[in-house]
Amino acid sequence: xxxxxxAASAPxxxxxxxxxxxxxxxxTAGRKAVAENxxxxxxxxxxxxxxxxxxxxxxxGDAALEAKFGRYDVVxxxxxxxxxxxxxxAHLGNPDKLGFPSLLVLSPQLKVLHTQSSEVFETGNxxxxxxxxxxxxxxxxxxxxxx
Length: 147
Fold this sequence. Notes:
Order of helices and strands: EHEHHEHEEEH
CATH superfamily: Glutaredoxin
Number of domains: 1
């Protein structure tokens, strides 16, 4: 599947759980990241967002991306009418202002190292909108903390 964009309009997985407390999710991921010497990747969005679901499909359907996502402790941080996770969002600098999904790379100590709108990963193909796996893979390689 490498090199094939995943369309934003198709139904996709629902990786965001509005019942979870985002701050608790971040703290849990931070403890795990410290123990594993890895960074935390926070993907802010919601199941209501077709682009968020498209990114979830891409994450699960591309072997190279799955392997690279495995270098991070990944948190799907819900932002929805049901739960805007204000404490976690404030800690992250309110990335909702960038649109959804937003990706943030954190140190194991939960310091924000980089905030990225997912717009830069889009294919730019209006006939088949989606995220470009190569662009996303480049981002993940750049920020995973390995040489």
